[in-house]
Predict the structure.
Amino acid sequence: MSNESGLLPDNIAALAAYSSAKSEKLTGTTWLNANESPYAKNLEITIEDLNRYPDPQPQLVIDRYAAYAELENENVLMTRGADEGIELLVRTYCEPSKDSIALFLPTYGMYKVTADTHNVAINGLTQALLLNGSVDEIIAAVGSSKLVFICNPNNPTGSLTPLDKVKAIATALAGKALVIVDEAYIEFCPEQSATQLINEFSNIVVLRTLSKAFALAGLRTGFTLAQASVLAPIRKVIAPYPVSGVVASIAAQAIAPDAITSMRRQVTILNSLKLKLIDWLNASPAVLKILTGEGNFVTLKLTNKDYFKQALKQGLVMRAFTLFNEDDWLRISIGNEQELEQVKIWLDGLQLPQTAAQQEVS
């Protein structure tokens, strides 16, 4: 990209933008590529008072989400998706050209893009270190990084970092770094949430979203959860009116007690359907390896990456990935029963190459 005018900072000129599932411009009829919920919501929207600025932090939403997360109102900041929470943390706590953030790769791509945007260095560590390394090894590798991002469950691998390890990392980094636990998929394994550690640790921050289990990816609503002292400087940096009145109205309905009960029923169904999908994948000779972690998705390695192209021809859109320097990985979002049946049809219809032994028999 040319920068002939000289107006563009070097870090932005060199930036590789995050490629979301929707930015790939694929066409199809069954969409299992963005970890969206298959359950569309029926909500009542009253559009009024749009001539007035909205409440910067809508009280009813904050009240209800604090109750849901078992925290106090002062521990909750509503944002435009969890992505804004990531951006606010980097912008507030990291000094450009000086600080770094630590990531455990492969993981969610927006941590790196956000840091690159703000000219903050990346300390790229591995999921293997996070999951299998000792706390001392992890802390040594984190070094002087100001923020440590732990996606839990991790996207796209589904791996889960035990809470005891999160707690030990936060203890060792007290006064040195914030430990950011991204819980976009936590509703699929709620007992593993780090929110229970927030009152104990001033350096633990939890990111949440309504995009996954709450089935509101199109609303772009998230929450940053932490002790009040951690959120105070972020409140200085956030836009003056980050949440529209319409978004606040929908979000309040989505986290009402009866809606939370409905969400949990849907999660139970999706977790059950995920187990069925894993059985199908285990039985398929087209699948070489399956990462059966938590979340509303399954990530797998194909024996031939061309199988993904066959799925697209059938209108089945899943997410192709390059993981561990291999470009034959695929992530399948957990859709409804009818959508997952299309995956079964695709798997059953694949023309697999015969081995020499099979050819002799035939």
